[in-house]
Amino acid sequence: MRVALVAAPFISVPPAEYGGTELFVAHLAQGLRQAGTDVVVYTNGESTVNVERRCLYERSEWPVRIAEQAWIKELNHAGWAIRDAARDCDIVHVQSSQGLAFSRFLDRQMVLTLHNPYNKSLSEYYVHYPEVQFVSISENQRKQESMPKILTIHHGIELESYRYVRQKQQYLSFIGRIAPVKGTHLAIEVAKRTGIPLKIAGEVQPAHREYFESKIKPQIDGKLVQYVGPADLKSKNELLGNSMAMLFPIQWNEPFGLVMLEAMACGTPVLAIAGGSVSEVVRDGISGYVCRSVREIVNRLRSLSIDPSTIRGYVEENFSIQKMVGEYVTLYRGLLTNRDSAQAPR
Question: Average model confidence (pLDDT) for the chain?
Answer without folding.
Answer: 94
